[in-house]
Amino acid sequence: MDRSAGQEAAPVLSARGLSKSYGGNRVVSDLSLDLPPGGMLGLIGPNGAGKTTLFNLLAGAVRPDGGAILLVGRDVTAQPPRARLRAGLGRSFQIARPFARMTVLENVMTAAQAQTGESALAALLRPARVRSEERAHAARAREILDFVSLSQLEGEPASVLSGGQRKLLELARVLMAEPRVILLDEPGAGVNPALLDLIADRIQAINARGVAVLLIEHNMELVARLCPRVIVMAAGRLLAEGPPSEVTARADVIEVYLEGMPA
Amino acid sequence: MELLAYAAFFLTVAMTYATICLGLNVQWGQTGLFNVGVAAFVGLGAYVSAILTTPEAPGRLGGLGLPIAAGWVGAALAGGVLALLVGALTIRLRSDYLAIATFGVAVALQLVFQNAEPLTGGAFGIGFIPRPFGGLQRQALPFAALNLALTVALVLILYLALERLAQSPWGRALRAVREDETAAESLGKSPLRLRLEAFVLGGMVMALAGAVQAHFIGFIAPANYLPALTFQVWAMLILGGSGNNRGAILGAVVVWAIWAATAALIAHLVPAGEQARASSLQLVAIGVILCAVLLWRPQGLLPERRAVPRHLGRP
Ligand SMILES: Nc1ncnc2c1ncn2[C@@H]1O[C@H](COP(=O)(O)OP(=O)(O)O)[C@@H](O)[C@H]1O
Ligand SMILES: [Mg+2]
After folding, report:
1. Which of A62, A102, A230, B161 could pair with A106 in a Cys bridge, judged by C-beta atoms 3.0 to 4.6 Å apart?
2. Is A152 close to ligand 1, i.e. is its CB under 6 Å away?
3. Which residues of A199-216 are buried (b: 16+ CB within 10 A; e: fewer)?
4. pTM score of the predicted model
């Protein structure tokens, strides 16, 4: 994938001066960023910097106090999450949110978009059409489960998955929605080294297929491996931007990380 | 002969409870909507159908004399409208608000049944509700058998329709909302729309069940629609298996059998003067069984199915 060409194209996702406060506490403050189509951008910063809140703003789970969000050039600031997903923006959660009492396959199939059978009337009155759609969705869900190495578990309730498998399931679900941009919130957190490698590899493969990725991650090795560029957030603001090796060598970046550590 | 007629009568009533239970299963079992006002929907269906179908009576409004089928349709529609109103008022239908709202509605509606005398007959209720196959009433067995066939057919049709819905993407989306609303929303679902639809569908089924029950018994009174009814139906669903339509039906039959058996026991063992008070022991018995189920088999007799459906089986 030619990333330098991507840089020049109009961004697939942009934030313009986003702000969000919780009870007088400015969690995200005048934050702007651009994600080029097919790009991979790391988002790092100490705990409490506002990274997850920024994701919530971008995905539509939380309304900003100010600023705008553009998705493929369209202003989606006032739109609910499902409209943004329809426009191509998917996300995962820092703490995985599997549908625990549903099978792994059902978890993934739920994420298919524009399902005829999601209307109760159509489900009752057009069984043939719903069934053929279901077959197609099941086939695609199984391909995706293969891709994330969860095929063996398709019939199990998601509650039996390990922490790392839950992260993979989140990835599978969001892929089922066929997004052009995905926001991944710490996909490597709490994952054992073997699975971590798999997750990193899968993220790379997704990006290689042309899906743009905005990646929050604390594991700097992983960030350096995946992301040609990172941005650093501290106290709700953009602190630095550049290649990971340069950014992490900056004195101000080291300082905010050290502040977050116990003395 | 008499025993057969009694068995048919018992099962017919059980089928009406099974219908209520199927309605609650859509709301709670599949969608996680905590409706503690089941009695309101059942009672509304009973009164609406009674008012629509009974013959004109002096001193009472309604009594439109419509056919029974019209009463059933009217009851289901009324249940849907009530669900829509409660749903719209508790906007997000979150569990705590919904529980308070549905309980409040059930208390309020029961007071209406009790006090809107010109419409509902007050404490005495409404009698002479036309019974299906009423022409055969004097022949106990055929009458009981035909009514049983009718309610079994109704339960079967509802079961097949609700099962098709449960297996469909719509049913899957309901379960997703039940499991994790935020995740479901992030995957493009509209929790608000799905909850409202499930609540309305469940309300319609419960109200229909109330109407069917009223027409089978032939008379209704406000005392039939107290919170104890809600409790009974919840016990049925939990015992049978929340989230499983077959479990809902089985639970209704089992709990109704326990109810009938304890009633018979009390009639035998307790002196006549004390029987009214002793009947509260029936609720205690149900409560004890409910606790036992929650302790030892919380998923119920027939747990929710969590397997890949056969038609999606690997080729
Ligand atoms: N819903 C909320 N209500 C109040 N405070 C919140 C809420 N969400 C996040 N915060 C606060 O915002 C700050 C940033 O949190 P978060 O975005 O999760 O940071 P990060 O993901 O960078 O660790 C924290 O101080 C957190 O306590
Ligand atoms: Mg976070």
Report:
1. A102
2. no
3. bbebbeebbeeebbbbbb
4. 0.93
